[in-house]
Amino acid sequence: MSQIARSKDNKYELLYFPFHGVVTALRAMFAISDANYTFTHPIDWAKEKPTTPFGSLPVMYETDPATGHTLELAELSAIESYMGDKYGWMGDNLWERAQIQMYHSLTQAVFDKWVTTVVRAPKENQEQMTEIYTEKILPEWVETHERVLQAKGCDGHYVGDKFSIADLKTATTLDNLISISGDRFLSREKTPAIFAVYDTVEKMPKYAAWKASAEWKAYDDVNKKLFGF
Ligand SMILES: N[C@@H](CCC(=O)N[C@@H](CS)C(=O)NCC(=O)O)C(=O)O
């Protein structure tokens, strides 16, 4: 199995629903890599659910074309770190890797909290939960990340001078956070260091091409229809 995981010629399939959901950064990882990949979607989720490792998506399948053996990996963070390790987006040493995971985890958490506190709240509680999110949870993330990135010198990266999965997670999540709160907390004037990360990622040619693609736009349209952003 670890032999298969080491190969760079493998074919990847990323199974997830036909919207961005939680995989905006993960899909971008495939798009900016040179991996041979396809994005697939469940046809009948109720039937397919029990066939996945933990009854949820995303799931990544990685096949060695030489042997036909397939590895199956679930859990968003595990897949993102795995791709990050494969493609060199986890820093240059153990400590950098840990720092990258720390910032990546903080940003994944601020998105997950939106889903758990607001999106999944009963209709009658939604206004109150939105207020808790925008008054407390989101400003805390903004303050922490702007402070950390300012201290580092506003250079467009969380760790070292290289692109990492922490940079990508913030860049992709920022679009959602701005949809939620407008420019109340996040703007080029108020949070220049966070925007330096955003701009650095947006300028990556393969990322920009992916974000401009019809495939990305199709996921975006469904996302907007279902979740409003
Ligand atoms: N812990 C999982 C959670 C993923 C998750 O929440 N997936 C949702 C879609 S965003 C899902 O599969 N929902 C369908 C279901 O639970 O039946 C991860 O990090 O990958």
Automatic annotation (TrEMBL):
One GO biological process from the UniProt record? glutathione metabolic process
All copies of the GST C-terminal domain together span 93-227
Origin, by domain of life?
Eukaryota
> What Gene Ontology molecular function terms does this protein carry?
glutathione transferase activity
Under SUPFAM superfamilies, the record lists: GST C-terminal domain-like, Thioredoxin-like
Q: What is this protein called?
A: Glutathione S-transferase
**Residues in domain GST N-terminal?**
10-91
What phylogenetic lineage does the species belong to?
A: Eukaryota, Fungi, Fungi incertae sedis, Mucoromycota, Mortierellomycotina
